[in-house]
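Input.
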Amino acid sequence: MQEDVTERKRVDDAIRLIAAGVSATTGKDFFQHLARSLAGLFGADFFHWADR
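Output.
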């Protein structure tokens, strides 16, 4: 059970940090910051955001 609480806190903290970081940006900068933040959250080497 302790592991579930720790993981939940990590996710909550990450979402809070991403929201704080992207709240000051708009347009292309917003999506670049969001992509970098999500890649870091998931431990990915890169993140691709596609738009139709």
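Residues 16 and 29 are 18 Å apart (CA to CA).
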